[in-house]
Every structure is written in structure tokens, then in C-alpha cells.
Amino acid sequence: MDRDSVGTPKTVGIIWGLLVLNTLGSAGAETIIPIPRSLIQLVTMGALAVAFSLALALNPRLRIRASSYLSLLTLLLVTSVLSSAHLESGFGALFRCARLALFVGTLWLLSRWWDGGPTFVRHHIRMYFAVLGSVAAGLVVSPGTALPELYGGRLVGALWPLTPPQIGQYAAVIIGLTVLLLLGRRTDKAGAAVVIVPSLVLLALTHTRTATVGLLIGLALAIGSLLLTSAAARRFFSWAVLCAVAAAVAFSSALQAWFLRGQSQENFSNLTGRAKVWDALLAAPRSTVEQLFGVGLGDKSYGGLPIDNSWLAVYQEQGLAGVALVAAVIIVLGGVALLRPPSLSRACAIFLISYCAIASYTEAGLGDASPYLLHLAVAASLLAAPAAAGPLSTPEGLRRRMPRRAQRAEVI
Predict the structure, then answer these.
(1) Residues near 1 by beta carbon (within 8 Å), at least 6 away in sequence
(2) Radius of gyration from C-alpha coordinates of the chain
(3) H or E stretch including 38?
(4) b/e for 34-49, b at 16 or more Cβ within 10 A?
(5) CA distance 76 to 373
(6) Cβ pair 362, 164 in contact under 8 A
(7) Rounded to 5, what percent of the chain is helix, strand, coil?
(8) pLDDT tens across 174-190, in order?
């Protein structure tokens, strides 16, 4: 990968890594060495506190950049506090609000370095590739733990408790971003292969349909935005279509078996039981206040079962007000991306926005601190206008040591 943009401190990458660590979560499969959930929560929350402290130390004058994305997230935070103040979800709701406040505050502090360049894309790829590296290490050390029967033989985190959808999401996102960097000539083929090939293997082992569909559609939209200006994008798109058609014809039965994961048609049609939870959630009686503002931040579950839908999870916890704000986030970012001229930054932003929109149907996370909000934060950084360059100046000490003739030449 290319080196970071000039002017962006290396500490920014450390802060981004801590935000990634915070959003890994504490629930998942059994690990090789059992880790108490309380310890995992201590590590993840500690990472967020350290990230905020480092960001504040790096930006003590609170220099921020105007961002519609962060403004909408701030309004979502206010809505979350209002919905959680009734304590219907217990004191844990206020704790989650505090976590969301630190998360959004850290993003505001980092917005100073949002300049429309790919710096945060590289941070994103590096951090999630490191997470996938831990997954691969767990697979090598203990294949039985990494491919448990409890999850139908799907890949999980054996060193850190990660579920198959999480691993699939991380793999799909860094694959898509790396492909786009390669097409934009921001990385070489060898470096891209190091990221893409193992990530594809891990994605296949997770059998995650949402991540796969999001990757394919997101890449199609992103590359489509480059077709008129990039010959490399046109060549890649043509070869990708030919390979997809050939694979569909030659391996149709194998692809169908992978996609169904051994499920019956009935189980597949109700989205592995998700539809039953959704119907029960929508049929539950609610007061007017609960409809407007929800019941407060929770664990994204209903009746003890995961909701697995961002829109319904937001409706449950932050009400119709939260749904409107999350929809505004997607619409505003998507609209800004469409209005930008074709570029690599625009293509990466389109990929991330479309992936999050697709995944929101079967995954929760758009209403709380999560990897999806980090994906959209990277998209917002890519869509930010480049910072105006200040006038170049020569240090006074150096100017005094320069002969008068050289000073005159410098002025000229």
C-alpha cells in the first residue's frame, strides 16, 4: 500500500485501529482459550476511551471540519439519549449512549484530517486485515474450534469471539476497497493479492450471503462509476462479467449448494428465522412516544432473539425519529457521491455506501457504534472537499542565514 498522506500524523492510524477494536463486540463463538465477556468489554471500552484521549491530545484546539454525516450522527445521539432516559432498557442504555458519544466525538476530532484522499481507506484495510489475520491464525491452530458444528461448519473467530457474518463483512469490505485501489493504481498487484486472495478464502469459509452479495453489487456500482474515465476499470469489468458467466455455467450446482448452506427452501425463504422476529417486533403494541423515540439503546434483540435488521433495530431502540436520521445519512452520502465527478475516492465511497445499504437488510448496526458507522465515516472522509493549501513560508532562522541574493531569488 502507499504511504499515508503528507500531513496526516501516524497517530491517526492508531486511533482508527482502536475504534475498530471497540466495534468488534464481545459476543461470538467459543475461543481456544475462553475469554470472560467482562474482560472483552473492558478491552473494547478501554480502546474507545484511549482513542478519544489520543484524538483530543492530537487535536487540542478542537479543529474540526463541517460534516453532514457527523451532524446527523450527533442528532442520532441526541435521539438515543432521549429514548434511553426513560430507562425502559435499563441503565445499560445510558452506558451505550455514553459509548456512542465517545465514538462520535472521536470521529469529530479526526474530521480535521478528512481531505478526500485515500488515507483512511488504507487505515481501514490495514486494521481489518489484521483482524482477519487473527481469524486465519485461529483456523491454523485449531480448525475444529474455528469451524464448529454449532455454526454449521462456518468460519468463526477462534482467538477472538467473532461470528461468521462479522468475518464475512470485514473480508468483503477490504476486498472491495483493495480492488478499487488497484484499479486506481494506488497499490501494486503483489500487494493487492496479499490482501485479496486470503480474504476471499475466509469469505468463502464463512458462507455469508449478505457479505458476498454486498461485495458484488457494491463493486459493480463503484466500478461502473469509473467506466467512462478509466480504461483499467473497463477491462476489469469486462473480464469480471465473463468470469462470472463462466463460473455460473460451470459451477452452478456448487454455487447453489454454497448459497443455500444446506438449508431448506422454507428456512431460506424466511431468512433463517429473521422474518418471524421482524413480524413479532412490528406487531407489538407501542405507545406514541415509543413509536417516535423507541425504548432506548439495547443489544439489538427482541424477545431474546437478534433482530438482524438495521432499520427495525433502530425503530425498536430510537423510533421513527432514528429511522429518519439513519435514512438521511444514507441519502445524503449517496447524493453527495453521485454529484461528485468520477474519481477513485468517489468510487470507494460508492462501494462503502452501497455495501452498508445492502447489509442493513439482514444486519444491525447503523444506529449505534459499529463497523458500519466506521465504513460510512470512511466514505464521508472520501467525499470531503480537499483542505485549502496555505501559503508556503520560509522559517525566519533559515531566512536570516540566507544571503540577500538568495532571499531575492526566493521572493521571485
Answers:
(1) 122, 125, 126, 181, 186, 187, 191
(2) 23
(3) helix 37-58
(4) ebeeeebeeebbebbe
(5) 12
(6) no
(7) 70, 0, 30
(8) 999 999 999 988 999 99
In three-state secondary structure terms, 394 is coil
Residue 156 pLDDT more than 60? yes
Q: Is the pTM of this model over 0.70?
A: yes
For 217-240, the pLDDT digits (tens) are 999 999 998 887 888 888 887 888
Q: How many CA atoms lie within 13 A of 319 on its CB side?
A: 20
Q: Which grid cell sits at 254?
A: 456448487
Instruction: Find out whether 148 and 308 touch, Cβ atoms under 8 Å.
Output: no
The string of DSSP letters for 123-189 reads HHHHHHHHHHHHHHHHHHH-HHHHS-GGGTT----SSS---HHHHHHHHHHHHHHHHHHHHTTSS-H
Q: Identify the burial level of 256 via C-beta atoms within 10 angstroms of its C-beta, where 0-12 means exposed, 13-18 middle and 19 or more buried.
A: exposed
The string of pLDDT tens digits covering residues 292-312 is 999 989 888 888 888 989 999
- The SS3 assignment for 26 reads coil
Place of cell 533559515: 398
